[in-house]
Amino acid sequence: MNARGPDFDELVGPEVEPRERERLLRVHEALVEAGPPPELSSRLATPLSPKVVPVAWRRRTGVLALAAALGAAAFTVGFLVSDYGGRSTDRVIAMSGAGGASASLAIFEVDDAGNWPMELDVKGLAPPASSRLYQLWLTKNGELEALCGSFLAESDGTTVVPLNAPYRLREFDGWVVVEQGSKEPVLTT
Amino acid sequence: MHRALEILPEHERPVIELAYWRGLSQSEIADSLGIPLGTVKTRTRSALARLAQELDGTLE
Questions:
Q1: Taking the C-alpha atoms of A70, A137, A111 and A51 in order, what is their torsion angle to the nearest 10 degrees?
Q2: Residue B29: CATH number of its domain
Q3: Are the C-beta atoms of A179 and A134 separated by less than 8 Å?
Q4: Which domain holds residue A146?
Q5: What ipTM, to 2 d.p.?
Q6: Within an 8 Å CB–CB cutoff, is residue A41 touching chain B?
Q7: Is residue A176 very low, low, confident or very high in pLDDT (cuts 50, 70, 90)?
Q8: Within this chain, do residues A115 and A29 fall inside the same structural domain, yes or no?
């Protein structure tokens, strides 16, 4: 990249029709001129390392205050972009909770309809009270916002379960697992 | 332009951000995101075309 931004020819390649090329070039120049948006994606807010893009998820007060108090070390979050069992992942979210509970949420490439297929691998969950289900939620500003599915765990607190998030993920700022009917997270980012 | 970026799908926006505002080459973006170089190029062209459509009439 230079002062005029990335190499346009490298970006679009040689096979673009002249008229389309002209159109894309205007966008390219506008992007260079505009510079980064003030709220540049948090994925870019910290230095990149190969295949790992850390992100600092915002933690808010309210129902997630208890989770925040469990300590920053227990809430390590990362976008790990890698191949995952032969499927192409968009990112992998690390989750953790009290008593050594942890989870890895692999989010696969979004489909054409806007679904984000996912696989949640949990370990060490305590048995839920009164045989309730666990639920995975997207959160925003410390509140449960969008349900992404329910699941059960084995007696030792482990399971691997497919889930789905039919939402625009950038509109949310975290993930939590709660017991059905509860707002207290047992796992969080 | 910044508002127009909001219309990009989740899988296209990072390639634009990394190319334009982190200065990564297409190969470096492929490495960083763990996707093939061809996918980076496809997503970049698609994102630029999507932005062009969104901004049609304003960039003349």
A1: 0
A2: 1.10.10.10
A3: yes
A4: 44-188
A5: 0.89
A6: yes
A7: very high
A8: no
